[in-house]
Amino acid sequence: MLSNFSIESNYHNNVYPNLFLTYFFGGVMPRINTISISLIMFFLLFILCLGTMAHAQPTNNQNCKNIAKKMMGEDIKIKKIHKQMKHVIDAATGKESKNYPPIDRFNRHVNILIHNLGFRVESMKELIEDAKQEGNNCQEMARNISGKVNAMQEIYVNMGISLENPETSGSKLFDLNKNLEQQANGASSELKSAVKSF
Question: What is the DSSP letter of 101?
Answer without folding.
Answer: -
